[in-house]
Specification:
The radius of gyration is 17 Å and the shape is globular. It has a single domain, classed as Vaccinia Virus protein VP39 (Rossmann fold), CATH 3.40.50. Helix 2 packs across helix 3. Strands 1, 2, 3, 4, 5, 6, 7, 8 and 9 form a 9-stranded mixed sheet that branches. The chain has 7 helices and 9 strands. It has about 240 residues and is an alpha/beta fold. It is about 30% helix and about 25% strand. The longest helix is centred in the middle third of the chain and has 17 residues.
């Protein structure tokens, strides 16, 4: 394989089907009703992109969905979560995993790579939301533009923590509140492609609508490969 190239044979399946009632049944009792990060989704990503023993990171660990499934599938999982009550829930859901309390803005200071996979679903923000800051546990103030800029920096840190062949997978949806449509998934895809290489989008198919979500996606990215000169050798 030429220097600077990726192994494109390792890819996620082109779409995923998720059942609304299964997610509701497995959701933590303290979770808000719009929490929809699915164990089935996590299992599919792990099956397609990792092997037993691989290291997996979730920088927005929440109630520990990624950690719980990764641990059950024989992966080594690490989660970062801002809110202490959710840290406790994640640790209970995945007692064999590492849970670090802290904000994802400081990710590179909180965990040590490399990881084979970073899989997460960040807290959402719509254009007409606010001023609460999703990245601070919906406290403080922010704006949609600031939220995207800070999320861009977090995603850049995620990419830097990957192995050369690792993947970053972000579950994110567009939002249709009825009054305004927010292309959140597309905006996150844009900032993700600014700091890495977006290689795939996978549509998440729900059996029935979920609150104000429009299109729901898995965005798959890799670290930017080293540039290569005409001889196929990495440039200095």
């Amino acid at each position: 394989m030429p220097a600077g190239a990726y192994d494109t044979s390792v890819r996620l399946r082109p779409h995923l089907f998720v059942e609304h009632d299964r997610v509701v049944a497995e959701r933590h009792p303290a979770a808000e009703e719009d929490v929809h990060f699915s164990r089935d989704l996590v299992a599919a990503v792990l099956e397609d992109l990792t092997r037993p023993g691989d290291r997996v990171l979730d920088p927005f660990a929440g109630f520990g969905t990624t950690l719980h499934v990764a641990e059950a599938m024989g992966r080594s999982a690490v989660g970062v979560e801002l809110l202490p009550e959710r840290c406790a829930a994640a640790a209970e859901a995945a007692p064999g995993s590492v849970v670090v309390q802290g904000g994802a803005r400081h990710l590179s200071q909180l965990v040590e790579g490399p990881f084979d996979l970073v899989l997460t679903s960040p807290p959402y923000m719509a254009r007409d939301d606010g001023p609460e800051d999703p990245l601070s546990g919906y406290t403080g103030s922010s704006s949609y533009e600031r939220y995207l800029a800070e999320l861009r920096d977090i995603l850049a840190q995620c990419l830097e923590l990957l192995t050369p062949d690792g993947h970053l997978v972000v579950n994110v949806a567009n939002i249709d509140s009825g009054a305004r449509f927010t292309p959140l998934a597309w905006d996150v895809g844009r900032v993700l492609n600014e700091v890495g290489r977006l290689i795939q989008d996978v549509f998440v198919c729900w059996d029935r609508p979920w609150h104000d979500l429009a299109g729901d996606y898995l965005l798959v990215a890799r670290r930017v490969a080293p540039a290569a000169d005409f001889r196929g050798l990495p440039m200095e």
